[in-house]
Specification:
By secondary structure, the protein is an alpha+beta fold. The chain is about 35% helix and about 15% strand. It has twelve helices and 16 strands.
Length: about 500
């Protein structure tokens, strides 16, 4: 490649002069900037590519590849890290080198038109990025195999050991809302028995889709399963072989989309200005129909209310959504509020069953002897608070305690390796422990953001005599209390981790 000078774009409106630039100018700028940051730089014979230690994260070997490529507008310099791949954008690499993104182009003016279209970063990501830099991939987890690595027998489990996450004073009204691990049917062996089959009908009242409700027959197992089947186009639904387990096997086009359960009834009720009730499953719809309600749901469970399913509610006068008492129900309330507002539903109301056991649904409410009028109506902001607590906050807390286990394991392994005379391996494990500590700090930052979001949701509920607002405010404040306890606990854990690896605790922790 020739590095002879050549002119940039010709003069035109807004650019009376066309400054000269040289092919390779961006490479020179980048190499100079990187050379000032690292001690080891290797330039290849062609003078276009270099290898150097990545300035964004610690590395024992050269890993950052910098190359110059020709473009229709002159040329540009590209970064690629062989250690952590392309998880960072070119803008990130430029910032790490102390440059502007436009500096990566021979003719800087073209940088504006070629910015990477990556996901927009949150305020917290922009704040923590410069603090820790590009950390690279996490080391392999070893906490569960530590004793094998040390050549020691694994000790017996300590039943007296308390849970990592302390809870506030025992309060049954709060404990049911704390996130709990759910069984994953895909990872366990179950024997299912059919309970009921729900048919989805088209506008001519003919089946086109069906959902089977199944339960595990093992003693004490409560796992349920909901396989779906699709009718082959133009075939007889009464013939079993005409039903397929996927849209592809049924010969349906890629654009095919299912409908609401009881779709025709919903359309008629909306047209007549009647309230329509949305539930989290076909079983609840049947229960609601026994209470003379116009009811519907979506196939696929509480997490799968697709945007197109909100269209039948366009302009609806009143839509009432009853949610299960679990994480999925809280998330569903937030999503339905958004989707129904987007289609112009005039009034959207959200309810929980009066039964307070975890995962209670509408059928539990009715079977417990409560009438429909006793459903607990709550503002969507209260659901948003609990959704954040049971998803974002719970994930951050789990990450911190995972990091704590890995830090302890790495430090113990480092001590073992050093004692065996393997000082390099010991140093590597101490470095890996430090990487886990920084991951814990990042999770702590996410938890801080989650607590702020939960507090903001609670603050958004009006303080007045409206019983719905009063109930919602009390419930949201419970989420604030639990989140505050989590944050205090996690902060102490992260501070202790920095002390363990002998590093200064960042101010934000």
């Amino acid at each position: 490649m020739s590095l002879a000078a050549r002119p940039g774009p010709p003069p035109g409106p807004g650019r009376p002069e066309a400054p000269l630039w040289r092919v390779g100018d961006s490479l020179d700028r980048v190499v100079d900037a990187v050379t000032a940051r690292v001690a080891s730089v290797k330039q290849l014979p062609d003078g276009v590519m270099v290898n150097c230690i990545n300035p964004a994260h610690p590395d024992r070997h050269p890993s950052l590849h910098i190359s110059h490529v020709d473009t229709e507008h002159g040329g540009r310099t590209l970064f690629h890290c062989h250690s952590c791949g392309n998880t960072a954008t070119q803008q990130d690499f430029a910032a790490w080198a102390g440059l502007e993104y436009d500096d990566l182009f021979d003719d800087r003016r073209w940088g504006f038109h070629h910015r990477d279209a990556g996901p927009e970063k949150s305020v917290r990501q922009r704040r923590t990025g410069p603090t820790y830099g590009r950390l690279g991939p996490l080391p392999k987890p070893i906490a569960t195999t530590l004793y094998e690595l040390l050549g020691l027998p694994k000790p017996e489990a300590d039943p007296a050991k308390e849970e990592h996450l302390p809870k506030p004073e025992a309060d049954p009204a709060k404990e049911e809302h704390l996130p709990k691990p759910e069984a994953d049917p895909a990872k366990e062996e179950h024997t299912y028995a059919a309970v009921e089959t729900y048919l989805y009908l088209d506008e001519w009242a003919k089946p086109f889709h069906r959902v089977h409700r199944q339960r595990c027959t093992d003693d004490g197992c409560t796992v349920k399963n909901f396989p779906q089947e699709y009718l082959r186009a133009g075939s007889d639904p009464a013939i079993e072989r005409n039903w397929a387990t996927s849209k592809e096997k049924a010969g349906l086009p890629y654009t095919w989309a299912t409908r609401l359960y009881r779709h025709a009834q919903v359309e008629l009720a909306v047209a007549d200005g009647m309230p329509v009730w949305i539930f989290e499953g076909e079983k609840d719809v049947h229960t609601a129909e026994g209470e003379a309600l116009v009811a519907t749901t979506n196939p696929g469970g509480g997490k799968n209310f697709a945007a197109h399913l909100a269209e039948p509610f366009r302009g609806a006068g009143e839509v009432c959504a009853v949610h299960d008492r679990d994480e999925v129900g809280y998330a569903r309330a937030v999503r339905l509020e958004e989707l129904l507002n987007n289609v112009g539903a005039q009034r959207v109301r959200h309810f929980l069953p009066a039964t307070t056991a975890a995962k209670s649904d509408f059928t539990d409410h009715i079977e417990a002897g409560y009438p429909v009028e006793d459903l607990v109506e709550l503002p969507v902001a209260a659901f948003a608070a609990w959704h954040t607590l049971s998803s974002t906050a719970a994930a951050a807390v789990a990450t911190v305690f995972t990091c704590e286990s890995e830090v302890d394991a790495r430090l113990r392994l480092a001590e073992h390796e050093t004692a065996q005379g393997r000082r390099t391996a010991g140093a590597d494990n101490r470095r890996y422990a430090s990487r886990w500590v920084k991951e814990a700090a990042r999770a702590h930052a996410k938890l801080v953001d989650a607590v702020r979001a939960i507090t903001s949701s609670s603050a958004g509920i009006p303080v007045d005599d409206n019983p719905v607002h009063a109930a919602g405010l009390a419930w949201a404040r419970e989420a604030v209390e639990v989140a505050g306890t989590q944050l205090r606990t996690v902060t102490g854990v992260v501070q202790a981790l920095f002390e363990k690896v002998g590093e200064i605790t960042p101010p934000e922790v």
